[in-house]
Amino acid sequence: MKVGFITLGCKVNIYESNALKNELIQAGFEVGEASDDCDCYIINTCSVTNTSDAKSRKMIHKAVKMNPNALCCVMGCYSQTNPDEASKIDGVDILIGNGNKHEAVLKIKEMLSQKRKAKYVNILDILEEHEYENLSSEIFDHTRAFVKIEDGCENFCTYCIIPYARGPIRCKKADLVIEELQKITKMGYKEVVLSGIHTGKYNDGEYNLSGLVRRILDEVKDLKRLRLSSIEINEIDDDFINMMRESDVLANHLHLPLQAGSDKILELMNRRYDTKFFIDKLNKIRDARPDISITTDVIVGFPYEEEKEFMETYEFCKKYDISKIHVFPYSVRRGTKAADMPQVKEEIKKDRAHRLIELSEELEENYYKRFIGYEMDVIFEQKYDEYLIGHTSNFLQVIVPYEEKYLKENVKVKLLKYVDGKILGSII
Fold first, then answer.
1. Which CATH topology does 256-370 take?
2. Which of 192, 280, 359, 396 is the most buried (most CB within 10 A)?
3. 128-251 is classed in which CATH architecture?
4. Average pLDDT for residues 3-29, to the nearest whole number?
């Protein structure tokens, strides 16, 4: 029996799909990408924007069309936020939201063995308290492995539906995180990324995020590099900054979502910090790691954003040496407070996004070029054409001519030349 996966959205969704792949393989199934010969499809959906909802629906229809006789299991954020809509799509046999994705394997086995397609729907009330759903993954696309340590968000930013899709914060027990990391490193993975919906709020009742990271650094001896997928600026404490001073295992890179460099817009977004707080904490981080790469997310064209507020964001990113900006034109999301605010015209959003992307490209190139001539450790993740591609601790993408023995290895490389968003290097 073959199960085909379609996974949309964030790294947490990817991790959860990979965990289900593990379970299905152990149960004797063949797993892979969705194709015409699958006996079952799992579509792990996203709902972060209205466009994500539309793409989720499109992928469901695509799977059903590939093989109408196959079992179709739809799960994830779109299922959670739009269960009535999702259940009415022709061909959907299993509908699961978030918090109970582990049920998918059991239901698939049951329904395939009995050759029946009576619809199964189980959507938890995600805003109620639930236990952390302890999935674990051993399947990763590249050398960099991901470990999910947290689920849920309680920030309720005015533009964001995720608290309603993922529910309140739940965390994986620190002992289980350590156990999973030790298993992953014994399999040969050199780098691990800690991920979650709101990673910085990790707290299992005994350890907060800094406490967990300290345990990892102390106990997972084979780990060469530990990276965070994303963390809010107001969740980085002095203990974490001290660890950045002490340990070169912690990656020299942080992704700190800014969203806006205007205090007016930050307040409207309910972001719970202002630009002064962001700058003060950024200075503390750079005191510990002067050459750290700081990447960020920015939403442009948020309600009430005038040219003045946009330029405040633009100048903020430029002045404070952001290495790369992930730019998102504001997208109305049904069910959020910002959806009822006065909207910025689409052509203005597009213009501002274009200008900020141009700035991001300039800042990224400038940051990369600072390291030409340096010798740095690179973990090579994959082969592409005749090259190996990998990343430094500060997330510079490096390519070298392909040599198989260096794939998945931590290698010292001299950085020679910046070319189209990458650095051409030479292995020492």
1. Transcription Regulator spoIIAA (3.30.750)
2. 396
3. 2-Layer Sandwich (3.30)
4. 94
Using pLDDT thresholds of 50, 70 and 90, give the confidence band for residue 132: very high
- In three state form, how does the secondary structure of the chain look? CEEEEEECCCHHHHHHHHHHHHHHHHCCCEEEECCCCCCEEEEEECCCCHHHHHHHHHHHHHHHHHCCCCEEEEEEHHHHHCHHHHHCCCCCCEEECCCCCCHHHHHHHHHHHCCCCCCEEECCCCCCCCCCCCCCCCCCCCCEEEEEEEECCCCCCCCCCHHHHHCCCEECCHHHHHHHHHHHHHCCCCEEEEEECCHHHCECCCCEHHHHHHHHHHHCCCCCEEEECCCCHHHCCHHHHHHHHHCCCECCEEECCCECCCHHHHHHHCCCCCHHHHHHHHHHHHHHCCCCEEEEEEEECCCCCCHHHHHHHHHHHHHCCCCEEEEEECCCCCCCHHHHCCCCCHHHHHHHHHHHHHHHHHHHHHHHHCCCCCEEEEEEEEEECCEEEEECCCCCEEEEECCHHHCCCEEEEEEEEEECCEEEEEEC
CATH class of 375-427: mainly beta
The CATH architecture to which 2-122 belongs is: 3-Layer(aba) Sandwich (3.40)
pLDDT of residue 141: 62
pLDDT tens digits, 41-85: 999 999 998 889 999 999 999 999 999 999 999 999 999 999 999
Domain range list for the chain: 2-122, 128-251, 256-370, 375-427
Q: Mean pLDDT in the chain?
A: 95
